[in-house]
């Protein structure tokens, strides 16, 4: 099969440059387009030179329609509003749309699911193999243990992260809720301050830490009477997310239209 032709949006950002490098490192694909917001100082620059992989003769543009023409997929770690717009444009061009954007609200996710009726969308709060395996394990442990075991999700990220809890923390919380066959929105506890009273059985708690240059630390704690289980993942290099996104695009290339997750890509849905 020929190389998959991919576009990176948000190409001049930190994740955008990593995505470009991941595309170039994978023999199964090649970069054919790079998109940035209007007014970006990177417009017109060669995407490869900006990403440090050498000249690719792919100039950065602010016109997604131009960039998407002739492509097969788009890698998107931008912002919720931009992701919704890119989803529509990708659907119009029948592109695989890989979404690693964090901070997506329920309305954003529903919009992506609606768009996925016309194309292939792979969305995840975290694209790494390790985190998605962790989510599968969390789902299985939550299914096995009763509500007398308390669940807490703890995450820490660098000081510049703007959304909380992280997309990965929410992914893990959703996995725990799925294991217990409950809706996370109905059992999620994200803030504790002052005199809160005793913890309610069945709640799924979140704790958020921010500081320094931490790439991403996540733990899920199952606390029972006299014992505790802790499942954890430590991200040491953001390149793991970029490599996962490329893997997702290649996996979805021949799939029918639909909304997929990294659990589908990695065959972890049965956990």
Structure notes:
- Helix 4 links the parallel strand 4 and strand 5.
- A seven-stranded parallel beta sheet has the order 3-2-1-4-5-6-12, sandwiched between helices. A five-stranded mixed beta sheet has the order 8-9-7-10-11.
- Helix 6 (129-144) runs parallel beside helix 7 (167-180).
- 36% of the residues lie in helices and 24% in strands.
- It has ten helices and twelve strands.
- It has helices spanning 14-25, 47-51, 64-68, 80-92, 106-115, 129-144, 167-180, 184-187, 239-252, 262-265, and strands at 4-9, 29-35, 60-61, 73-76, 96-99, 120-123, 150-157, 188-189, 204-210, 216-224, 227-235, 258-260.
- The mean pLDDT is 95.
- It is of the alpha/beta class and 271 residues long.
Produce the secondary structure layout.
Elements: E1 4-9, H1 14-25, E2 29-35, H2 47-51, E3 60-61, H3 64-68, E4 73-76, H4 80-92, E5 96-99, H5 106-115, E6 120-123, H6 129-144, E7 150-157, H7 167-180, H8 184-187, E8 188-189, E9 204-210, E10 216-224, E11 227-235, H9 239-252, E12 258-260, H10 262-265
Parallel strand pairs: 1-2, 1-4, 2-3, 4-5, 5-6, 6-12, 7-9, 8-9
Antiparallel strand pairs: 7-10, 10-11
Helix pairs in contact: 1-9, 4-5, 6-7
Mean pLDDT over the full residue set: 95
Quote the beta fraction.
Answer: 15-25%
Q: What's the end-to-end separation, in Å?
A: 31 Å
Number of helices: 10
The Rg value, from CA coordinates, equals 19 Å
By secondary-structure content and strand pairing, the structural class works out as alpha/beta
Helix content: 25-40%
Low-confidence stretches: none
Number of separate strands: 12
User: How is the biggest beta sheet arranged?
Assistant: 7 strands, parallel
Helix and strand run? EHEHEHEHEHEHEHHEEEEHEH
- Cross-sheet strand order for the largest sheet: 3-2-1-4-5-6-12
Oligomer: single chain
Shape: elongated
């Amino acid at each position: 099969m020929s190389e998959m032709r991919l576009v990176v949006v948000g190409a001049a950002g930190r994740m955008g440059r990593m995505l470009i490098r991941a595309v170039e490192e994978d023999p199964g694909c090649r970069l054919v387009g790079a998109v940035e917001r209007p007014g970006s100082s990177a417009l017109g620059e060669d995407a490869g030179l900006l990403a440090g992989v050498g000249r690719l003769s792919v100039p950065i543009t602010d016109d997604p329609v131009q960039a998407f023409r002739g492509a097969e997929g788009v890698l998107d770690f931008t912002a919720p509003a931009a992701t919704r717009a890119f989803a529509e444009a990708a659907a119009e061009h029948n592109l695989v749309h890989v979404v690693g954007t964090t901070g997506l609200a329920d309305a954003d996710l529903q919009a992506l699911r609606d768009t996925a009726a016309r194309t292939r969308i792979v969305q995840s709060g975290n694209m790494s193999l390790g985190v998605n395996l962790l989510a599968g394990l969390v789902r299985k442990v939550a299914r096995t243990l009763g509500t007398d075991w308390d669940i807490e999700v703890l995450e820490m990220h660098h000081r510049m992260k703007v959304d909380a809890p992280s997309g990965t923390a929410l992914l893990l919380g959703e996995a725990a809720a799925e294991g217990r066959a409950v809706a996370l929105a109905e059992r999620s506890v994200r803030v504790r301050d002052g005199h809160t009273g005793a913890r309610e059985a069945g709640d799924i708690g979140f704790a958020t830490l921010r500081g320094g240059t931490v790439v991403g630390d996540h733990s899920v704690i199952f606390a029972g009477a006299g014992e505790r289980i802790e499942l954890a993942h430590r991200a040491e290099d953001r390149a793991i997310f970029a490599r996962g996104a490329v893997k997702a695009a290649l996996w979805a290339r021949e799939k029918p239209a639909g909304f997929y997750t990294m659990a589908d890509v990695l065959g972890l849905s049965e956990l």
